[in-house]
Amino acid sequence: MRILVGAPAYPPEVGGVQTLSARLAGALAQRGHEVSVLAQGGAADPRIDAETAPARVRRVAWKPLLWPAFLARFLADRPEAILLTHRADFLRPALMLRRLGGPPLAVVVHGNEVYGSPRRRALVAALAGADAVVAVSRYARERLVGLGFLPGKTFAVPNGVHVEGFDPPEAGLAVRRRLGLEGKRMILSVGRLSRVKGFDSVIRALPRVAERFPDAAYVLAGRGPEESSLRRLAADLGVAERVIFVGEVPHGEMGRGDHAYYQACDLFAMPGREDRAEGAVEAFGIAYLEAGACGKPVVGGLSGGVREAVGEGESGLLADPERPEAVAEAILRLLSSPELARAMGGEGRRRAEDRRWSRVAEEYEAILRDIASH
User: Fold this and answer.
1) What's the whole-number mean pLDDT along residues 24-43?
2) Closest CA to 248 of 14, 8, 11
3) What is the pTM of this model?
C-alpha cells in the first residue's frame, strides 16, 4: 500500500509527536508498505532517516499563505491513503485534496484537541472531514465521541515505544558519573517543561523526600515555558542544589550512550495534570513507556489517559499533582522498597514490549486499509 505520512512535527525536533511520526512511518515501511514522509522544516538527519528506513523522508518549508502549493507535494507519490500525525498546518491542504476526490485521510489526535479555546474547537470541527480520526488513547477517543464525532470513524491506538533503543542498562552509569550522582537516588522527568506535566509537584515533594533520603536528586530533561518558574520554585523551597536541569536531550538518545538518563534513574516521575486554562492534558504519555522499556517504575498523575500508560500498583503509582505530599509518598514508597521498584519496572518493561512500534503499525495499517477500501 502506498502511504503518505504528513508530519508537521518530525525529528530532529524533540517530542512525543515527533517520535510517533518517525517511528510509525518506519514501522509501516518495514511491514512492506511504500511509505513516504512529508516532514515540516528542519535539516535532514541521516541517522534518523536511516533508523526509519525504508520510509523515504522529504523535508519542506511550510509557508501558511502558500499552502495551496502543497497540494502537488501531497500527490507526488500517488498515495492510496494519507496519514497526518498531527492536525497542525498540513490539515487544510489534506482536507482540500479529500474534498476534490483525493486520497482518503486519517488524522492522529494527541489529546489537547479534545477541549479548549473556540479556535481549537474549530480545528476539531474541521477534522470531521477526515475519513478516520485516530486518538492516542481511549480517553482521547471518548472525549472526541463526546464532542460529536461518529464512533465508527473514531479509533483509539495507544502510542508505542522503540524498545530496542533502550539497551543496555549499563549505559546509565556514564550519566551518573557526569552528573555526580554515583551511589545517589535519582528521580527523573523527561518532557516539555510545561505546567501540564506536573514537574512543579515533584519539586514541591522534594523537601519531604530529602528528609528520608538526603542524597536524593531530581533530574529534569527538557526545555519549555515553565523552566524559569521551576528554577525559582526549587530555590524558594531550598532544594535548588538537588534539582538538575540538563536541557533538551537529542531525539533517539534517551536510553543509550552518554544520554542514557532513563537507564540512570531509580524512578521516573511525571504526575501530569489537566490544565483547563491552557486546554492541555496528558492523553497518554510516551515517556511512561520509555521508562518502562528501561525497567524503571513510574509515578504518574490522575488525569487524562495516564492510566492507560501506567498500571496503577503494577508498573507504577499514581498521585494527585495538586497534593505534593501524595507525590512525595509515592516517590518514597518506591525509593524505600527496591524490590517493589524492580517488580514494577519489570511490569513496565512487559507493557512496553506490548506496545512495540511494529504492533502499533499493525493497528494503524488496519485503519488505513479500511478507509482506502471505501
Assistant:
1) 90
2) 14
3) 0.88
